[in-house]
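DM from R.C. (forwarded with permission)

"hey, sorry to bug you on a friday — could you get me a structure for this? deadline for the figure draft is monday and I only need the backbone to look sensible"
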Amino acid sequence: MAIDAVQTTEKLRVSQVVSENTQQTVVRGKITVPEPKPDVEKILSTDKTAKIKKIEILPDKAIVEGTLSLQIIYIAFEPAQAVHHMHQQIPFTTFVDLPGAAPDMEALGKVTVEDVNIMPTTTDVRVFDVAAVLSVFVKVTQIRDLSVVTQCPAMATCTSELVKIANVIGSKTKQVIISSDVEIPNEKPLAEKILEVDASGEIKTKRIVKDKVIIDGAVTLQVLYVAAEPDQPVHQLHTVLPFSDFIEVPGAVPGMDVRVEVKVESAEVEQIDGPAGKLRADVVFMLTANVMEVRQINIITSISGVEATMAKLRLDHVVGENSAQVILRDIFETPEPKPEVEKIIDTAVHEIKITETKIIKEKVIVRGYVNLQVIYVAALADQPVHAMHRRLDFSTFIVVPGAKEGMDVDIRPLVEYITADKENCHVIVELVLKITAKVTELLQRDVVVAVAPPVTPPPVCPPGQVITYTIKSGDTFFLLAQRFNVGVAAIQQANPGVNPNQLTIGQVINIPCPPAKG
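My reply, with the result:
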């Protein structure tokens, strides 16, 4: 019985994991109680978060730059012992070893604050030493096209495995340029000279329509400048430039997964006509969108009985994916100094931020918040239009069978419904969120990507007899004579009327067997 030469294969385009690693780093710095805040008697609580601003891939390693943010609530050192709050940021830079990484690869990272210690200095009661322990994780990937054999060939023995993978539908990049005038706040002095500009990008929301990815985000600028004052002090200006854009990705449809990365390439801020309260900012950044869909395929991890070509598959295997709905309702008054509401015109979500994810056995805990903007007509004689913002916190869990602590999770929030209404002096907001969690773990397997065509042994030819043979592709009398160890003339003599130059596949001819030796 011959081995079936037909291979059942599937073409895949996957984000192959080249390397991943976690590095612990200690961040040290000093923070100062800002004026006009009072001195600190006792720190009550510290809310700590960290954010990666930039990942630069070098050969075999990644340089990670980010910011540690501290929200500190403290009792003031004063008779009333009032409770105050201050916000502080400390930049950090570290590296993560990643064997096999190269500058043209994609990088994903996350940072977790494991511990923070804040101690007062001995020289100044308003200055504190900060020591924080961060866990920095970086994964480097590369898009790879390959075909895998999904069905065991006949006459072969195979070990197979059913896996779920994220198949890349399309990966596209777009360069975006935004320019904007930046007003220096009234409480800050005018700018004499720009010293330094630091820029970082962030994706706020992303969604897929047919063949496109719609992206909303923001670029945050930190501008260091010399003030236009006699003693020329140095000041810092913080501003946020929002942006909206799209990337065409053929084949993308709603419901697929999308990952969007933003990388700032250049940021310039200059004065407009000498020292003034207005600056001009020009930012160039790259947006990269990877659209994926989960596919379930059968891979062959070992094979015997045939000659096969193996390839190493190292990617994120989808353990499970599920969704949960979150219903948010909030009643609030118009914040001071905004006027009262006469009529609500529009309500929109400006940002959905996931602040914490945690995997426990077969569940994913998710916490975050939604930033809303409500546009309304004010209850004033001239009926001006105003806008107000509101933050809604949420917490939920999603059941994902097979999820375990230590696995990776990707969260995709989606606003399904939003409305706002006025009731007496209050605004009532209702919001329905769909939170989808996809849990993955690293899968590393050697898989079969090709099977060599089988070699069919020649049929047994008893000495001195004649057998029948069916012509196959490439056969000639000369090759058949060599194969059966018989002369060409003998084959021609056994097939009178057959033209050796016009053989057809499937044609049956006679083959004379050579006489027995000896």
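R.C.: lifesaver. The chain has four domains: 22-138, 169-293, 320-440, 466-512.
me: no worries. The helical segments are 477-484, 488-494.
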